[in-house]
Design goal:
It is a single chain. About 40% of the residues lie in helices and about 25% in strands. The chain is of the alpha+beta class and about 525 residues long. It has three domains: about 160 residues, 2-Layer Sandwich (TATA-Binding Protein); about 160 residues, no CATH class; about 190 residues, Transferase(Phosphotransferase), domain 1. Strand 10 and strand 11 form a beta hairpin. The longest helix is centred in the last third of the chain and has 25 residues. It is globular.
C-alpha cells in the first residue's frame, strides 16, 4: 500500500491550507470522541455527522468508521445558515465547552498547525531517503489523528532535526572518562562510532540535546570528565519518534533523550527506563521465541544496552542513549520493513485489498494478544511501534514490534524481586490497565486506521468482518479466554483521551480512556 496520491496533492496545495485542514480535522475528531460524544451530543444524519460543542451545532461528512476520516470542510450553524468552520473558531468552542482556563491550549494548537506547514514546505525542498524503511519513518507529517496538537514541539531549532522534513545529520560524539561511565548490557557497538582517548569511552549524543544541555555540560567538559570528540563521520537519520535515529555506520537505532515536549511528553530516558530496557530485553527473549514459533513472522527489536555518564541524575538521563536493533537486521532476506503509521496514511490501495488485510491482521494481532494472555506481557502496538515486513509483491509477511519503553509486564505474573522499586513500577501494569492498553493500541489506534486507509471512501464493514474471522480463529485456539470473548462480543473499546490530557496539562501516563463503539459489535 503506497501513498502516491497524497504525495501528489501535497506537492500542489498551499502548505498553510493543508495544515489548516489537518488541524481542524484532528481537533474535530477529538471533539466527537471526548467532548460531544460522552455528552450524547453526536448524531448521524446521512451524509453528515452532527455534533454540538458549546451550544453550537457543527456538521461534517465522514468515512472510515472508527477512524473518522473527514470529507470536505466542516461547517457550523450560524443563525440558520451553515458557514465554513476553521480551527481557531473550533478552539474557541472547545475552550468554552470545557470551561476553566488553559492559556496554553490555543497556542499549542496553533504551533502544531504552523509546524505542519513548515514540514510540508521543507519536504518539497529535500528528497526522501532512498531506503524504503527510512522513507516510511519520515512520512508522518500530520501526527496522531486524535490529538489536538499532534505536531506541537518545543525549541527553536526543531525543524533541522525533524524526520518529517527528511532531515539527516551527524551525531555529536563525547568521550566519557571511565570513572564516570554509566552503562549496562551490550554497548560495544558504540565504540565503533569514533575513537575515544585512552581511559574514555565513546558516547554518541543528539546535537539538539547537547545544545539544550550546554550550561550543565560546561563543568564536566572543562575538568575532563567529558571530552568533545566532534561529529560522527556519517549522517544519522531520525525516525518517526524524532529522538530515535538510525546510525548506518553500526546498523543500530539509538534512542536519545530530548528535553523538549513532543505532543504530550518531554522525551527523556529516565534512569529507570535505561535499566528497564536492558532488563526487558533479557526477559523477553524466551517470550518472543515462543511467539515466533507459534506465529511465524513475528519479530522484535531488542534494546540490549545503554550508555551514559554518571554525573548526577540530570546528565545521567539527559545523555543516556539506548541501543536498539535495526529492522533490517531482523527481517529475513527479501522482506522490506515499513512503518505501520505510514501505511495508515491515505494512499493507493493494494491490488487485492482483502487478501492484503487478512495477511496484515494475521501478522499483527495474534502475537499481541498471545503475549498478554499466555505470557503476561503488554506490548504497545500503536502505529509508531509496529513495522510490517512486506514481500516482493507488497504482501505483509512479518510484524516487527519495538520500543520497550511502552512494553510492560502484568503485575503478579513475573518475579521482579531484586529490582529497584521505581524500575518495577515503570515496568508493570495491573491486569485491567494492561488489557486496556493492548486493546486501545491494537484495535483503536492501529487496525481502525489501517482499515480506513485501505477502504478509502468505501465501507470498512467487510474488512472488520475479516478481522473478526482472524480473531475468532485465534480465540478458539485459546479456548475463548474471557477478555477476548468480550472483545469479540462487541464490548466497547477504550480510546485514549489526548484532548483531556492536554486540557488538564497532565502527564501522559495519567491519560484516561473514553469508550468508543467496537466495530466488531455489528458482526456478532
Amino acid at each position: 500500500m503506497t501513498s502516491l496520491a497524497l504525495d501528489s496533492r501535497l506537492a500542489t496545495v498551499c502548505p498553510a491550507t493543508v495544515a489548516e485542514e489537518a488541524t481542524l480535522a484532528a481537533l474535530l475528531r477529538c471533539c466527537v470522541r471526548e467532548v460531544a460524544g460522552p455528552r450524547g451530543q453526536v448524531w448521524h444524519a446521512e451524509p453528515y455527522v452532527l455534533l454540538r460543542v458549546a451550544d453550537t451545532l457543527l456538521r461534517v461528512r465522514t468515512h472510515g468508521g472508527l477512524a473518522l476520516r473527514i470529507d470536505g470542510r466542516p461547517e457550523w450553524l450560524d443563525r440558520g445558515s451553515w458557514q465554513l468552520l476553521n480551527a481557531d473558531r473550533l478552539v474557541g468552542l472547545v475552550e468554552t465547552e470545557l470551561g476553566g482556563t488553559n492559556e496554553e491550549f490555543a497556542t499549542q494548537v496553533g504551533a502544531s498547525r504552523d509546524a505542519m506547514a513548515a514540514l510540508l514546505t521543507a519536504r518539497r525542498e529535500t528528497p526522501a531517503p532512498t531506503d524504503p524503511w527510512l522513507a516510511s519513518e519520515q512520512r508522518l507529517v500530520f501526527g496522531h489523528p486524535f490529538h489536538p496538537s499532534p505536531k506541537a514541539r518545543d525549541g527553536a531549532d526543531w525543524l533541522r532535526y525533524a524526520p518529517e522534513a527528511h532531515a539527516s545529520f551527524p551525531l555529536r560524539l563525547l568521550g566519557v572518562r571511565d570513572d564516570v561511565l554509566a552503562e549496562a548490557g551490550e554497548t560495544g557497538s558504540l565504540d565503533e562510532l569514533g575513537q575515544a582517548p585512552e581511559g574514555y569511552s565513546t558516547l554518541p549524543a543528539h546535537p539538539w540535546q547537547l545544545d539544550l544541555l550546554a550550561a550543565e555540560l560546561a563543568a564536566p567538559l572543562a575538568d575532563g570528565r567529558l571530552v568533545d570528540l566532534g561529529y560522527g563521520s556519517r549522517p544519522a537519520v531520525p525516525t518517526s519518534s524524532v529522538r530515535t535515529v538510525y546510525e548506518p555506520r553500526i546498523d543500530r537505532c539509538l534512542k536519545f533523550s530530548l528535553d523538549v515536549r513532543i505532543t504530550n511528553c518531554v522525551r527523556k530516558n529516565s534512569w529507570y527506563e535505561l535499566i528497564g530496557a536492558v532488563e526487558l530485553t533479557r526477559r523477553l527473549g524466551p517470550v518472543f521465541e515462543d511467539l515466533s514459533a507459534a506465529f511465524p513472522g513475528t519479530r522484535w527489536l531488542t534494546e540490549p544496552g545503554y550508555r551514559s555518564a554518571d554525573l548526577g541524575t540530570r546528565l545521567l538521563e539527559g545523555l543516556g542513549v539506548i541501543i536498539r536493533a535495526s529492522p533490517w537486521s531482523v527481517c529475513r532476506p527479501g522482506v522490506t520493513p515499513l512503518l505501520s503509521g505510514a501505511l495508515a496514511v491515505p494512499g493507493d490501495p493494494p491490488a487485492d485489498p482483502v487478501r492484503w488485510w487478512r495477511a496484515y491482521v494475521e501478522r499483527v494481532a495474534p502475537p499481541v494478544l498471545e503475549a498478554y494472555l499466555s505470557h503476561g506481557v503488554v506490548l504497545e502496538p500503536h502505529l509508531q511501534n509496529v513495522l510490517v515486513g512486506v514481500d516482493a509483491t507488497g504482501l505483509p509477511v512479518e510484524a516487527i514490534f519495538r520500543d520497550l519503553e511502552g512494553t510492560k509486564l502484568v503485575a503478579g505474573r513475573h518475579d521482579l524481586s531484586g529490582l529497584p522499586g521505581r524500575v518495577v513500577e515503570a515496568l508493570t501494569y495491573d491486569p485491567v490497565s494492561g488489557w486496556d492498553r493492548v486493546v486501545y493500541c491494537l484495535m483503536v489506534n492501529h487496525l481502525a486506521e489501517i482499515a480506513a486507509s485501505l477502504a478509502g471512501h468505501g465501507s470498512v464493514r467487510e474488512l472488520w468482518a475479516i478481522a473478526g474471522e482472524v480473531l475468532t480463529g485465534y480465540a478458539g485456539s485459546r479456548q475463548w479466554p474471557r477478555p477476548l470473548a468480550d472483545l469479540l462480543a462487541g464490548a466497547p473499546l477504550p480510546a485514549k483521551a489526548n484532548l483531556s490530557v492536554r486540557w488538564a496539562r497532565s502527564a501522559d501516563r495519567w491519560a484516561g480512556y473514553v469508550p468508543v463503539t467496537n466495530p466488531l459489535a455489528v458482526l456478532s
